[in-house]
Structure formats: C-alpha cells, structure tokens
Amino acid sequence: VASFHGVDLDQLAEPLSYLHASHLAPHELRVTARGPNARAMNIKASDAIDRARALRVMPPLIKAYLRLGGCVGEGCYLDRAFNTTDVCMVMDTARFSDVQRNRYLGGQPL
Questions:
Q1: What is the value of pTM for the model shown?
Q2: pLDDT-based confidence at 109, cuts 50/70/90?
Q3: How far apart are CA 80 and CA 95, in angstroms?
Q4: Measured between alpha carbons, how far is 79 from 46 in angstroms, rounded to an integer?
Q5: In whole angstroms, what is the distance from residue 43 CA to residue 45 CA?
Q6: What is the 3-state secondary structure (H, E, C) of the chain?
Q7: Beta carbons of 96 and 104 less than 8 angstroms apart
Q8: pLDDT digits (tens, 9 = 90+) for 59-96
Q9: According to the model, what pLDDT value does residue 98 have?
C-alpha cells in the first residue's frame, strides 16, 4: 500500500483518476478496495486528466513503483485515522528487467 496525504477526493481526483486510467492492474493481479471507506478512483473521465499535473502531485513512492512497472488495484481506501488515501500497489517481480532484478533482488532468480 502507498498513500496520498489527505482524504479529500476532490483534491486527489487528478492523480487517482490517472492511476485508474493508466496503471490499473491486469484482472489476474487486481485486488479491490472494500469496506465502508473504499472509494472508486475513476473520478475524472480519462480524456479530462492532465497527466503532467497528476504526476506533479503524486507521492514519490507511488511514482517509483510505477517506474518499476507497478500497477494499482481497483479503488482506494480513505484512512481517516491517519489522514491518508491508500492505494494498493501491485508489483509483478517476474516482469523485472535484469537491471531491476540485480538492483532490488540481488540478482536472485524468482
């Protein structure tokens, strides 16, 4: 899980919508946020998303996961106790390049 600061979906609409439109996990890997605090991330239509603005406000950890080929589950979770909006990041390490495998897994086979 990686988090955005705050629980105001109006302020987070751009990056959440971008993640949903561009980085949704494939069906076989996709998890879904559940419970009373789960919310949809497809807040804005995909043709209304400003990619540059979405990436500017996205937390560095989420951008790092995306650079490694990460994707997101369906929906987000509003954690009001911690004042965060959480997204499930899915990493398919089998898809790592040799460079990524050497850097993050010490060159170990999967």
A1: 0.88
A2: low
A3: 34
A4: 25
A5: 7
A6: CEEEECCCHHHHHHHHHHHHHHCECCCCCCCECCCCCEECCCCCCHHHCCHHHHHHHCCHHHHHHHHCCCEECECEEEECCCCEEEECEECCHHHCCHHHHHHHHCCCCC
A7: yes
A8: 999 999 999 889 999 999 999 999 999 999 998 777 77
A9: 77
Contact present, 74 and 31 (Cβ < 8 Å): yes
**Contact between 86 and 6 (Cβ < 8 Å):** no
Beta-carbon contacts of 6 under 8 Å, excluding residues fewer than 6 positions away, are: 12, 83, 84, 85
CB 54 within 8 A of CB 62: no
Q: Which two tokens stand for residue 81?
A: 């106790």
Q: Which residues pair with 2 in a beta bridge?
A: 87
